Amino acid sequence: MHRPLVITEDQELLDDLLRVAAAAGVEIDVAHAARHARPYWNQAPLIVVGADTADALAATGPPARPGVLLVTRAPEDATVWRRCVAVGAQAVLELPGAERRLVDELAEAAEPVPRAGHTVCVVGGSGGAGASVLATALGLAASRRGLRTLLVDADPLGGGLDVLLGQEHATGARWPDIVEREGRVSFTALKEALPTVGELTVLSWHRGGAPPIPPEAMRAVLEAAQRGCDLVIVDLPRHIGPPAAEALARAGTTLLLVAAEVRGVLSASQMLLELTRHTSQVRTVLRDGDLAPDVIANCLGVPSAGVLPGQRGVTEALNRGEAPPLGDRTPLGRFCARFLGSLESR
């Protein structure tokens, strides 16, 4: 994949641009003279031209193209707009004031072809319903189908989805390393920073104290993931605070896992009231139990994504640090296959 190109002979400006590129998580190519830019001109996804080289670059007669920006550290330069036109730039960015926009432009240019990933939130209607196991199973099943998937652990008190995957010792960033991020984030840089199992990338927690997730950080992560993934799965806590609300606002589907017993349904009905404040795309997943699915559906009044039968061996596998069994003949595997198939058929 081609990288953004910077053209400048000004070392101080180049230092600033390298710092901005690092903030965007992007590697860049550098042409230290206008004549060195020609081989990169048509391939680079974004070209950043220093005002110091604009006249020399214009003299080479570069062909017109989109994605050219002129940057300057001299806001009082009356000739900057003439230079902008001469090189065919779409905008002039004055540093340091325009650094945030330049970070966003670089991050966007370095992204692969956008995938418009579908976001699925998973939440338990009552404590211990098995929402984290279901979220993990869906993430694994999706990755085995070749879908680029991000599994987001949004519950700081849930014990860690990396533990369910047997990856608690995997190297890579966790939420405490991400919480300061805001604005546009490159999914390429995010994927490289996080632990990955095949096509499944995981954002979970360190052991120990868990700092709150700022809603801005959740927004930045999910927006990056929706650009770079086929599927984003978010395991939500039962308390819907600002970061969970951010996830629900971006969800194409929210699965509410309901235990098929009286207290489980009553608890799920209360959870449903909270969820519908933030999203209208709620579907229930019913656990096997004493109450019939049609009775539960009538009580809750939202569509069902299916019944999830009990499955032997799941708890034992998790306690051994192994991923839950997802074979095609297992109840969990069959449910995941049906649900993912329903998303692909949309």
Automatic annotation (TrEMBL):
Q: Where in the numbering of this chain does the Rv3660c-like CheY-like N-terminal domain appear? A: 7-114
The family database entries (Gene3D superfamilies) matched by this protein are listed as: P-loop containing nucleotide triphosphate hydrolases (3.40.50.300)
Q: One Pfam family for this entry, by name?
A: CbiA
Name the InterPro entries for this protein: CobQ/CobB/MinD/ParA_Nub-bd_dom, P-loop_NTPase, ParA/MinD_ATPase, Rv3660c, Rv3660c_N
Tell me the ranges covered by the CobQ/CobB/MinD/ParA nucleotide binding domain, including all copies: 121-157
Q: Which residues cross the membrane?
A: none
Q: Which SUPFAM superfamilies match?
A: P-loop containing nucleoside triphosphate hydrolases
- GO terms for molecular function, please? ATP binding; ATP hydrolysis activity
GO process annotations (BP): negative regulation of cell division
Q: Might you report a single GO cellular component term?
A: cytoplasmic side of plasma membrane
> What name does this protein carry?
Septum formation initiator
The scientific name of the source species is Sphaerisporangium rufum
